[in-house]
Amino acid sequence: MNTIYSILGTLLPFEAYQFNFMKNAFLAILLLTPLLGLLGTMAVNHQMAFFSDALGHSALTGIGLGIILGLRNDLVAMLIFGIIWAILICLIKQSGSTSTDTVISVFSSTSVAAGLLILARGGKFAKYSSLLIGDILAVTPDDLLWLLLALIGTLILWALLYNSLLLTSVDSWLARSRGVRTRLVECIFVVMVAVAVMLSIRWVGVMLINALLILPAAAGRNLARSARQHAAWSVGLALLSGLVGLTLSYYWDTSAGASIVLVSALCFAISFGVKKIRG
Amino acid sequence: MHVHSCALCHIDLDRISVRRGGQVLLQDVSMHIHCGQLTVLIGQNGAGKTTLIRALLGELPHSGTIRHVDGRGLDIPHLRTGYVPQHLQFDREMPLTVCDFMAASLSRRPVWTGVGKKTRTLVNEALASVDADGLADLPLGRCSGGELQRVLLALALTPAPDLLVLDEPVSGIDRNGLKMFLDTLLDLRRTHHMAILLVSHDLRFVREYADHVVLLDKSVLAQGSAESVFSSPEFTSVFGFSGEEAAE
Questions:
Q1: Interface confidence (ipTM) of the complex
Q2: Which residues in chain B are closer than 8 Å to A163, comparing Cβ atoms?
Q3: A159-163, B101-105, B173-177 — which is least confidently predicted?
Q4: Which domain does B204 fall in, by range?
């Protein structure tokens, strides 16, 4: 870790990056934003922006349940709950009996209410309020290892599943006729999103996590013509917003998550303008 | 593309039934789809045409058997089916070129890392075979109805299927596009000796081109040559007019 710190110290000769917590945050952004940027492209193509928002909210319930069950590691509680929640939403969506956004809304509000109910017992919610806005400066080297593993795992699955997901997002009957197991593929994808969301939520916060997943991919969509360009723009803009946002938050002394999302939003606005000009 | 050697092979559907939620969608449908022939499925909306296609593609649970047999009645394993859906209901803003779309189905390499040379060649050849050269780099969402149908046909034909299934592929295309599409199809029937199953509402077209016509309403009401089906009393009772009127 010390070697990495000293390399970063040389590479980033800014006042902000002389502190180890900023270096950790920098590394976290470096791992997290490409992960969310990649997953975001498909979340946008599958029109799942609302779905990932609901997933973020379910983190509250996950932590609450972890406390009730006496789990010491709240990340594990969040992960397990997030995955179960994601699969449930996916199954109900696939059964096709109710409109998708209604299902998601029901899940989202239920999980927020259940989470609040548990976490706010005895007026102790203040203790957990950091979950809402996140704190990227609290990242530890251990957390970075988790993120690295998640990024590697995602890249492997992404290599195997991407084509199937792409076909499914265009037309699921056609995908099935080409031998794609659309339901399974979709389920694995939502689990991947769930894992990515749960791993990043402590640093980005329940309220902003979705923006980080959706905004760079949405901006990339305005600029790209092909799938490859979409991935490149999305990852590139996610990285750019992450690093610029983090640096600005240091000098402005404000929330890193919020700064990052605002930079992403600016990117989106610009990309939208570019798209309009191009016609 | 591989050329089929047997002239008498066919796909044998035997008493196919589909039930869903207590409702009978298809009842004892039996028919043969011969290779080298254009078999056309006709019937009113809700007659179960799309259901039959989905059962045939193995996408819907059904009873009864589907066999692919050669001239001597022996089973040929692995019926390879190419499917052209009625239309694609996709988000036209999606950043995705025609080449990306086809490569996602034809190659293992994830499309977001780009498309390899070999796949690219395969895509170009497939597009050229349906007179759709030059579409590869067009975003899928910018294709016209006719262009999209050609892309879907090109995909369905790669690799060459034993059975080509088209679910009313000619709806929403202008006349020019339609003519080109049909010519391609008839050409395929001749050169590749492919079995083609087509759902169509265009009765004039059916009468002119079909080798075998199947009139469906939950079960098979009539089947045979276009002539015989169009003149059957079942045809008149389903469509409310006779086959002679349909031709005019």
A1: 0.85
A2: 103-105, 107-111
A3: B173-177
A4: 1-80+163-248
Q: Is the pTM above the cut of 0.90?
A: no
Q: Mutating which of A177, A225, A234, A237 best tests the B interface, going by the most B Cβ atoms within 10 A?
A: A177
Cα–Cα nearest to B94, from A43, A183, A173:
A43
pLDDT digit string, tens, across residues A120-151: 887 777 777 777 888 888 888 888 998 899 89
Cross-strand partners of B67: B12
For residues B186 and B74, state if they share a domain: yes
Give the pLDDT of residue B1: 38
Count of helices and strands (H, E) across chain A: 12, 0
- Closest chain B residue by Cα to residue A157: B110
Residue type for position A117: L
Distance CA A2, CA A8 (A): 10
Q: Is residue B66 within a helix (H) or strand (E), and if so which, with residue range?
A: strand B63-69
Of A160, A166, A173, the CB nearest to B104: A166
Q: How far is it, in rounded angstroms, from Cα B209 to Cα A128?
A: 71
Please give the tally of structural domains in chain B.
2
Mean pLDDT across chain B = 85
